[in-house]
Amino acid sequence: MKRTLALAAAVFATAAAAGTATAPAAHTGTSLVGAGSTFVAPLVAQWTPAVASAYGYELQYSPIGSGGGINAVTGRTVDFGASDAPLSPDQFTACKGCAQIPWALSATSVIYNLNGVKNLLHMDGPTLAKIFAGQISSWDDAAIKKLNPGVSLPSQKIAVVHRSDNSGTTFNFTDYLSSASPAWKSATGTGVAVNWPAGTGAKGSSGVAAAVGQTPGGIGYVDVAYAKANHLKFLAMKNRSGKFTTPGLRGILAAATSDQKPDGTNALSIVNPPKKYPLAYPISTYTYVIVPLQSSKAADLKKFLFWAVTKGQAFGPRLLFQPIPKSVLVVAEKTIKQIHS
Amino acid sequence: MSSTDLTGDATRRPFTGRRVRFGDVSLQAVAGAAAAAATLLVFLIAYKVVRGAQPAIVRYGIHFVTRVAWDPVKNVYGAGSFLFGTAVTSLVALAIAAPLAIGIALFLTELAPRRLRAPVTALVETLAAIPSVVIGLWGILVLGPILRDHVEPALHGALGFIPLFGAPSTTGSSIFTAVVVLTIMILPIVASISRELFLGVPRDLKEGALALGTTRWEMVRGVVFPYARGGIAAALILGLGRAVGEAIAVTQVIGGGVGIHWNLFATGDTLASKIAASYQGAQSNIQLSSLVYLGLILLVFSLVMNASAQVIVRRTARRHGAPRGAAG
User: In terms of DSSP bridges, do strands A244-245 and A98-112 run parallel, antiparallel, or are they unpaired?
Assistant: First the structure.
């Protein structure tokens, strides 16, 4: 079973790699092959030439989605995988001797399409959960009006759009809704895919953005880099201190300071931080690199990962990736050191 | 029998007085190996699918087939809603495509001016060559919004009392959009096979009918249709098979969701689209296994479909001589 999966993942990875064959050929150095998260792909794309000039490594990364990345590293068809959601227990078992390392930090933005309504409409977690549960169905609902005094909201039907594929962004988003709304937690819960009570599914961030873009009254969620790059309107989210914050670097950093102690599996949860972090954007998330602790390319892999969690972080801010905090860096380096041949 | 035999009997008995020809022997070996590999592959795939589905079969049993649920968080799975989605999308698409396709075929063989026939035939067949992912994109960007803004409200307004035509979709993704996309995909298949079939109707039969004073429509109904009936049925089944198995384009436009509702403008999922959307990155082993179980149901469905197409083709072949149907 697992072998079949790995094979399928490998086929996908190769197909994706072939499709995006941009890496210069004829490199004499070692090649490091990775696959997974689309969320982190823009950052890895920035790293590729930098790693090539620093160490002569040829970095080949296929953005096939977090799930595909996990499958690929489980089957050892790649040197590393990347996932926005931490591994589930089943996935950890299947991966046999894998470790996950937080290596980038960003946020999920909630995008909307309302003609004539300003950017950064105000929203809070419980109301957002009700919208995605289909319980609030019009933009001029009293709950939304109350959050936006002075804004004239159209009597437009809300069209909820969510991801149809398994996605780390969905994990981050539903994790937030579960944290902000007990009703959502008990009825739907958190996952890379959930049993959506309402709305329409679309594939990938681009699919969600397209569906929201062509649907007046649409609302959906995509990673913030995507929303910014495509000039989409997104919500300002009310955090626990009562402040409305945006998914910018400052808000992400403030959220990240709320959990600086990775658990036994290096997972960190920074959604909806407590109210002593007044600047925190509540739908922030770490994203992880997943590596086998035993690797034939151990020395090179270690060198690359050390570089990624240190110097590589400097490439982040332009793409709305907040450099990971020192305390997390220490844990990440400790795990990287355990990689052996 | 032997001296003029060009059918290859000689190679089957290479030692009956003839020289063993290396070419013949290796042809037999290569062709035989290819056939064996194809057969073996079918069995291997079936075996792997059954084995992959086993944990879900053990845990949920046959009840899985009809249960309407898909909750990866609580690990409750069932195929009911996807079977329903598959049946509705493919059958409605076939119901729309069949008369259109037969109409196209009739036009191209009996009615169209001669110089129009070749270019229109080529264009219809080009439709079949468009990759499904491209049709899906067009479905998202063009077709979906048009259906949502114009077609669905009109249908809802005129025929809203029929539960099939409920409230229009919000984003343009719906079962109805998937139906239209599937119709476009199976139309050229059914049309080009039907055209071949109609071309195969003996000229003297048609001319005989016309000579007896029938109108063109009576000739078509009395001669062309009966002659091609079995082949058309097989063509329709092939089209249905295509509709049932199509994953990518459907995933792009159907919108997803679990549930059984009669409103065509609501979102849904088919067996194939659910597998395509959820396989990569499934979180638990039981979810993976349940997805493979969906695959098993789809496989059985397709096998039944294929087998019945073959039976029908064979039956027509017996009745009319050479089979001209599904091979086209």
Answer: unpaired
